[in-house]
Structure formats: structure tokens, C-alpha cells
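Moderator note: this is an archived Q&A kept for reference. The question asked for a predicted structure of one protein chain; the sequence and the answer are reproduced below.
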Amino acid sequence: MINSPQQEAVDAAITSRRSIRAFLSKPVERADIERILEVAARAPSGTNTQPWKVYVLTGQAREKLSEAILAVNADPEQARRHTEEYAYYPREWISPFVDRRRKVGWDLYSLLGLTRDNKAGMAAQHARNYRFFDAPVGLIFTIDRIMEQGSWLDYGMFLQSIMVAARGRGLDTCPQAAFTQYHRVIAQQLGLPENEMVVCGMALGWADPGKVENSLVTEREPLAHFARFME
């Protein structure tokens, strides 16, 4: 089968998506951000509920949020008082999931020259999440607390659509669950209403090709491992 140019463009946007952890300071035009979000809003949702809400942070707004989170994160005693509002990861890890988690972590740290005993270095790298890895655009996503599990599934399709639409424009992203720990700080800084719950954050911008961490390409299981064809 010969793929059409349209098929190849869509496939390339999807398969070239990676979590970028170092961005250039080059700004992203507001018109591009708006169009990416407009395109992503075509993602499906049950009975067209469209459960997503996005806070787009640039300039001082992005810096102010980062500084507020980092101030808390730098103090272990304060940081321990902040916990995630929902369980993103399983409470009990089993194979193969824990193996994949460990591998991607150590693959990244190895690229950065961080050894297992360098706890401070690993903490500093994790803290870069809260600067959106220096991306010029930070996105914070929220959902109304009344929505149930199905709407969270819909939300994932919306997030994926943002990342694919960004790739179609040569931009890169990094979805970030790390922000959920500091949902109370985020709520205060952004003035979130009580009914809104933080889903995650996302960095958006132009990848820095000179940074070694951006050379990380995570592995995917072969099709035969996760798909079963039944006739």
C-alpha cells in the first residue's frame, strides 16, 4: 500500500512526538497557540461534553507560577505537605510497567551523567519541570470536579491532539504530571475556582537541538505484544 502525502504527514506528526525537556527561548506566536488549541478542541468527548479548560501562561505569568512552585519544592518540609489530588500512577507497581518506568528514568539520567547516588542532581532535574523546561509557553489543564472517569479519557484525546497539532507546526511539547503535586499553589496563583481540578501541565515551544536530554527516544512495545487480531 502506498501512503498519500496526507497520511505520511499525519503519521510523522504522531511518531515524531517526544517529551522534550529543554527548549529554546524563541517565542511561539499567539496565533499558533490559539490555532493548536482550536484544532485540538475537535477531539471527541462523550455527548460532546468537552470537559477541558486551559490556562496559557507566557512571560511574567509563567515565571510567577514557576517561582511560586519552586519556592515550596525547595523546602522538603513544605513539599511533603503537598500531595497529588488524584492517583496518576498505580499505588502498587508490577511488571512490565515498573520496568518501563525505571528504564526511561535511567536512560534520561544516564544521558545527563547522573548516577544513582546523585540525589541532588536528580532532584534538580525533576525541578526543571516547574520551569516548563524553559519553554516559552506553559499550559495548565483543569477539569470540573463533577466530571467522572469517562471525561478523563476524553481529556487524554484532547491532550494528544494538542501535541500532534504542535508537531505539525514544528513545535514540541512535554506533558507534565509533576504539576499535580502542587495543585494548591497553582489554584492560588491562577485564581482557580473551587470546582476546577488540575489535570496536568504541558510545556510548549521549540526544542533545543543542542541539549543531550532531547536525544532520548523512548522505546515502544512491538505490535504483536499489545494487539490481538481475531477473525
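Archived answer notes: The CA atoms of residues 105 and 127 lie 14 Å apart.
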